[in-house]
Amino acid sequence: MNDPIITINGLNKTYEGGFQALTHIDLTIQRGEIFALLGPNGAGKTTLISVVCGLVNPTAGHVLVDGFDNITHYRQARELIGLVPQELTNEAFETVWNTVSFSRGLFGKAPNPAHIEKVLKSLTLWDKRNNRLMTLSGGMKRRVLIAKALSHEPRILFLDEPTAGVDVELRREMWEVVRQLCDNGVTIILTTHYIEEAEEMADRIGVINRGELVLVEEKAALMSKLGSKQLTLNLHSPLTEMPATLQRFELSLAAEGYELIYTYDGSQEEDSHAISELLTALEREGVTFKDLNTRQSSLEDIFVDLVNPKERA
Ligand SMILES: Nc1ncnc2c1ncn2[C@@H]1O[C@H](COP(=O)(O)OP(=O)(O)OP(=O)(O)O)[C@@H](O)[C@H]1O
């Protein structure tokens, strides 16, 4: 698939005061995908989407939105984008219908009640269309923000931390809404610091840390790399070095020699043979253990390694 809808080239952002929030970001978003931008607090996620949406000026670099430069052709580029901000900023006394219709007007689009109706129905807000926003639950308020962002029929939707601070049920509901939008042909870019959210939702994942994009990969490829497993044996007595007869196995020592760690590809048939061979070799060598456990590496391991490499060293 190579049908870019957003192309970001050499983007830098230094805020007044000298803080560099983005460092040379190159990124292409494909039409129709769900792209998750994953990063810890303060990594630069909001800055990046604000630059792409034309709300913050870059210090250097370019952004093309479906071929339109987002500065020289701001209006055309912006019209293609819907942005769901992080904070709930709704007009408390306004009705759902009026708020969403008004948002459409802000883009200079002629009223289109049929479109507003479709959006409200798709977000199960139709029954609430005459309710004032202050009377809605938190989940409904979030859906109103999405409805506002979709009111002018954008082809790309940015969701900035769509599920920050919401409960599990509402998170699942938001995921479902996002999936449906994607099924309707809207390209989705969401920021999150929940690994689970990126894992659940995204076709591709980009990891941003301290203003740098440190990884961009198809989720499926990333997950297949995560197949590796670790078997940890807690030894009775520590090993100071690896016995020669064990060197053919992929072993390492930890916890001052009290832990023997065997790393293997959990998806292979041969692995089970290798494990029994290892256990036999240990017995011959007189290496005994009091406990053992296995674990599978996760996206979280990769994320922690990328974002904080020293922590796990
Ligand atoms: N207007 C500004 N002036 C100066 N520094 C700013 C400004 N806006 C953001 N920053 C700084 O830029 C860095 C990146 O902020 P940004 O909001 O983009 O991060 P984020 O990844 O979205 O974080 P979070 O997950 O907490 O929302 C932070 O260190 C922040 O303090």
From TrEMBL:
<dbReference type="GO" id="GO:0005524">
    <property type="term" value="F:ATP binding"/>
</dbReference>
<dbReference type="InterPro" id="IPR050763">
    <property type="entry name" value="ABC_transporter_ATP-binding"/>
</dbReference>
<feature type="domain" description="ABC transporter">
    <location>
        <begin position="6"/>
        <end position="235"/>
    </location>
</feature>
<dbReference type="InterPro" id="IPR003593">
    <property type="entry name" value="AAA+_ATPase"/>
</dbReference>
<protein>
    <submittedName>
        <fullName>ABC transporter ATP-binding protein</fullName>
    </submittedName>
</protein>
<dbReference type="Pfam" id="PF00005">
    <property type="entry name" value="ABC_tran"/>
</dbReference>
<keyword id="KW-0547">Nucleotide-binding</keyword>
<dbReference type="InterPro" id="IPR003439">
    <property type="entry name" value="ABC_transporter-like_ATP-bd"/>
</dbReference>
<dbReference type="InterPro" id="IPR017871">
    <property type="entry name" value="ABC_transporter-like_CS"/>
</dbReference>
<keyword id="KW-0813">Transport</keyword>
<dbReference type="InterPro" id="IPR027417">
    <property type="entry name" value="P-loop_NTPase"/>
</dbReference>
<keyword id="KW-0067">ATP-binding</keyword>
